[in-house]
Design brief:
Blueprint: E1 3-4, E2 8-13, H1 20-33, E3 38-43, H2 48-57, E4 62-64, H3 73-81, E5 86-94, H4 108-115, E6 119-124, H5 131-142, E7 148-156, H6 159-168, E8 175-181, E9 190-191, E10 194-195, H7 204-217, H8 220-228, E11 233-234, E12 247-252, E13 257-259, H9 262-270, E14 273-278, E15 290-293, E16 295-296, H10 302-307, H11 309-320, E17 325-328, H12 330-335, E18 336-340, E19 346-348, E20 353-359, E21 365-373, E22 385-392, E23 394-399, E24 404-408, E25 418-423, E26 426-429, E27 432-433, H13 439-450
Parallel strand pairs: 2-5, 2-6, 3-4, 3-5, 6-7, 7-8, 12-14, 12-15, 15-17, 17-26, 18-20
Antiparallel strand pairs: 1-11, 9-10, 13-16, 18-19, 20-23, 21-22, 21-24, 22-27, 24-25, 25-26
Helix pairs in contact: 1-2, 1-7, 5-6
Length: 462
Amino acid sequence: MNRMERPRIMIAGERSGTGKSTITLGIIAALKARGLDVQPFKSGPDFLDPMHHDEVADRRSRNLDTWMFPDWVPVSFQQASAGADVSIIEGVMGLYDGADGRSEEGSSAHLAKKLRCPVVLVIDATACSRSVGAVAKGFKTFDPEANVRGVIFNRISGQRHLDMVEAAVEGQGLISLGGIPRNENIGLESRHLGLVPAKELDNKERYDVMKEMIEDNLDLDLMLQTASESPAWAEAERHQIDSMGNFKLALARDNAFNFYYEDNLDIMRSLGANIVEFSPIDGDLPDADGYYFGGGYPELHLDDLASNTSVKESLSMRIKEDVPVYAECGGLMYLCRTVRGQDGDMKEMTGAFDAEVEMTPRLQALGYVEARCVRDCLLSPAGGTIRGHVFHYSRVVSHKERHFSYELSRSKGIDGPMDGMVKGNTLASYLHLHFGSNLEFAREFARSCLGKEAGSVTRPEN
């Protein structure tokens, strides 16, 4: 078994809102300023934090999720961390929060155990002192295998406050990396699905402030030493992904569509895809062997999407020609006949499916789901299963579609548990899936793009 050094450390929180995203970005920026090559990761399914990681690290961040794709986690980590000086893994929610309240699956703690990496816990020290000792002790002893090694105190009011909270954790076998002063002006902007995507704003000044905040207040040398004490990395079991032939895959990527797992794209490249990006907002539809529409914020760009008739008409033609088209969440909205925005105005989309979507002020679905294929589709013949997650404020309020590809483990789909509208070689669903959960879904997509015979039968036309 080949063993190698992979310095790594997780920045986790005792709950959401402790400031771990800001602190993680500051740490990445500060280490980058030292000339280190930093590989970022994000625990869980979130798309938005990794976009900010990308901007700061100049390396593509990867999601690592022990519920969606437990077997793929070590593969992804090993591939992405190659050549990096250190890997920084940002946790999700609280350290022990995962798929449910009973198991560790999907939690940052579970990920830390799979990666055998030390954990630094970010504690919000607002309006407390000795009580943080109880918090720290609870997190360290709740599951000793999670390897909580240290703490960062956030929102410190001054040196005396820092002295008090550091004294509170003495004797617990924890290191203190320092305390971050309260600063309400460095938080990243958010909207209904989370942080505003990194490329929509010029965050350079914010990132610089975060970097200086970390440099001035945290012991980075001690953090790097702790990361370097991670056990030698045992080479992960290889998943053979051979090229199935060369094909061109057009990827919708702009301010409306930008929710993609980087591993999904890498897997498609390994299968032979030459990925070309285009913008449904103001671009043209490239000629391709297949099309991939991710999630994002189409609801914020309905006027532009509706007015770009060139892309809509060209895509409709390609769909009629049975060219493979796969769409998730925001992509699903775009393939429907109309979308009604929060302002009540209805805009015409592509009309690939005779369905109407409306945005709502309330969250319609959030959480992990397992999808079972009940009908042959672009990604799998009937019987295939894959894991993913749903997170959306829109809903399909009317549709005339009779064919759904997925039955979800929870009633979070287009029509109760039914999800994934199918028409010919087109599939549109609310499900955000990760090919690491089932590589056969990616292979089936590649087969379809290559026009090869697969395990599926003729798919419904209407």
